[in-house]
Amino acid sequence: MIKDSTKKNVPPNVLTAVIDLANANILGLFPNPSVDQQEILDLSKLKTDDEYEQYIQRLSTFLVPFPTITEQQLKKMFPKNKN
Fold it and tell me: Which of 48, 53, 44 is nearest to 20 (CA)?
């Protein structure tokens, strides 16, 4: 959302509003974030595409992969229902 707005040469006050809205949306996803979490999630200091890319890369270190599920586990979770 922010990268698209910066490429469209929108007025600075509109870009600021987009960044503020993005920050509010992101922080709204985390109930009671700590000060450290708020700092990590803050987008307002990012200005260039490279800074946004570095931000995304930094956040990717916090991703937790989904566990591997076997076919047997899937069959147990979704049994066939014959009617």
Answer: 44
Single-letter code of the amino acid located at 32: N
Count of residues making up the chain: 83
How far apart (Å, rounded) are the C-alpha atoms in residues 34 and 40? 10
Angstrom distance (rounded) from CA 7 to CA 48: 10
One-letter amino acid identity for 29?
L
pTM for the whole structure: 0.57
For the chain (83 residues), the mean pLDDT of every run of 10, in chain order, is: 61 83 88 89 83 88 91 88 71
The Cβ-side half-sphere exposure at 83, using a 13 Å CA radius, reads: 0
The total of other beta-carbon atoms located within 10 Å of residue 16's CB is 13
Report the distance separating Cα 50 and Cα 74, nearest Å: 41
